Structures are given as C-alpha cells and as structure tokens.
Amino acid sequence: MPTIDVKTSDTKKMEQTGNQLTFITPSTKYAYGVDSNGDVRWYSTKYNSHVFKELKNGHLLYLTKYDNADDTYSLLLETDYLGKIYHAYSMTTEAESEQSGSSSKSAIHHDAIELPSGNLLLTINDDTKYMEDTMIEIDRQTGEVVKTIDLKDILPEEFYKDYKARSDGKVDWFHQNAIWYDESDDSIIISSRSQDTVMKIDYNSTKIKWILSDKEGWPASYKKYLLDPTGDDFKYPAGQHAVEILSDQDDNSDTVDILLYDNNEVVTRGDEEESGKYSEAVQYRINEKTKKVEMVFSFGKELGEDYWTEIVGAARYMETTGNYLVNFGHRKDGKESSIIEVNQAGEVAFEMNLTSFPDSAWAYRAERFSLYPASYKYKMTEDE
Description:
Shape: globular
CATH topology: Neuraminidase
Number of strands: 29
Strand content: 35-45%
Order of helices and strands: EEEEEEEEEEEEEEEHEEEEEEEEEEEEEE
Distance between the termini: 42 Å
Structural class: mainly beta
CATH architecture: 6 Propeller
Largest sheet: 5 strands, antiparallel
Helix content: under 10%
CATH class: Mainly Beta
Radius of gyration: 20 Å
C-alpha cells in the first residue's frame, strides 16, 4: 500500500451514497478502496491493471494475472467484492502492450465495458505492427468474439501509415484509452491519446457521428464531423483520458454532455503553447444537431504545473451531489497521485495524496463505488 495522506475530508459535502469508498485502479499492482479518512477498507491480493469496473449486477470486471509473478495481465474476471469468480476469460498474450515504466504487459490494454446485451467490449491489440487501435466484443457466456472494430478502417490512412514507429517497431498511432456506450443512439464514444481526439461512432455501422479535436491535419473529407467551438477560453483536449457521458444536464435532447480528464499534453495536434502547463477535468456540452461544442465546467488549471500529468488520470461525475472526482494520477513524474473531489463551484470537499508506491502503481483511475451495490445478490448453495 502507498502512503495515504488525506488533506481535506468534508463528509457533509462529499459523495458518499451507500457507504461509498474511493477505489484506486492502478496501472499495476494492488487495487484498493479507502474511506473518507484514507483508511484502506478493501483490497484484492490479485494484482490489477486498468480495468476495474462495476457491472449492472453489482459484480466487478477485473483485469488480473494468473499469478502476480507473471509478466502479463491476461486474465479478465467477473468477480465480486468478496472474491467469488463468476466468469473468467483467458486472453492471448501474443499481442500485448507494455505498461509504461513497468516490466508488466497487458492483453487488454486500457479499458473494457459492459454492453446492454451483457456482452463485453474490450480494447486490445491486433497481430499487426499497429497497436492499441482495435476493439472486440465478446459473448459474456462463451467468450466468443462476435464483433471486431479496427480503427484503421475508420480514420485516415495517413494517420497510421505516417506515424513514427517506436524503437520496437510498433506504431502506437491511436492509443485508445477509453470507451463509453451511449444508450440513446446505440453508439460509443472513444478516446485517442495519440491523435488528441474524442469521437463518437455508431456501434452497428461504425460510421462517425462527430469528432472533438483540434482541426489541424484532418483531411477535407472529415471536416464535416469536426465540432465547432463556442464560448470564451475554449480548449480542445490533448492526450486526454477517461471520457464518460453524463446524465441529461440541460433538458435538451439535441445535446450530450461528456466529462474527461484533459492531460493537456499535445501529442499530434492542439495548443502547443498551453501544453504542459496544467491538467484539468473538463465537461463539454455537444449539440449533436448543430455540431457545436462548449466547455461548461473545468477544474485543474488553477492548480498549475504542479498538478500537470503527462500520462494517466481520470474525472468522474458524482450523480447525487453533482460533484466531480478528479484523479491527477501521474504527478511529479509518476511519484505521486492526487485525488480531489470538488463541487461545481470548484470548492474542495475531499483531497487525498498517494506517495511511496511501487513503480507504475500510480492511480490510473479513481472511482467512487459502494461495497454494497443495490443490484448485488449473493447466492449460497448446499451440496446434496
């Protein structure tokens, strides 16, 4: 466990519905949950990486290893907080991703979600030199692959063919780090760090609906998808993480609000002058009919360069209070993670700093879940 220092904890203003804990999803090593005092109330002895999601039935989707000493996260579990395993999916290790700053590798590199059908949508690598640009839907019951989405089939050919390869020959041209399903129109929103881009695509046809990105370098045929900014001090995301769709915010069926963590690290396109000065949580409001976008909330810029994080990070909306839980996961070159909960006025309700953790065991994401999900049922059986 890291050293945990809670600087602020106003339990009257925090989101704590149903005895919630703040869960730390690491890039590698232990996943754990802490209370408002910073005391560890839950942890798993099986290492975790990137995927720590609560499913509709109250179970967890949990990426781990067969043994903690293994070098690859290749075992995806449907488990519960007590450790009971309901499904286990063994992933191939032939096309894994290297974890930054770690000897560990991963077969599912950044995200996995549950679809309305109950099936699972996973971010993986295919067996080409291009990495982190493919998704597969697997049957929840059998593990069979029932759909594949290759981002090379959707975006301009020059984006991946002209992208500089790494020293190992792999081309990380897209670097998908988030998926979120939109039930209103059967679509998914995905985040590409390498292209500084968030986009929405129809799940069935994979046709693009809109693109949130600086307009630099996009071919003319894609201009119709690019959102036009409105409002003062607008900024496109750069190297962003953890995009999510919020519940209806303005009673307008034409708009959708998304929340993301803007690392503000320009990789391919964006504001080079602002890059590296700060990181922030940003709520964008997108009018899908007019293709206009505005920023309606942000937090982090006022903290300055001390809270800038080149990689990882997350922002989550708290439904009961309207607060935002922001994870500055890679402060001080990955030596510190800071989780801050703020209200819509930017007032801090909770602030926790994590230090002295193993290499790469920073907070990839921070989530606020209850140990006692309302939908969870534990069934015991008796041998006959």
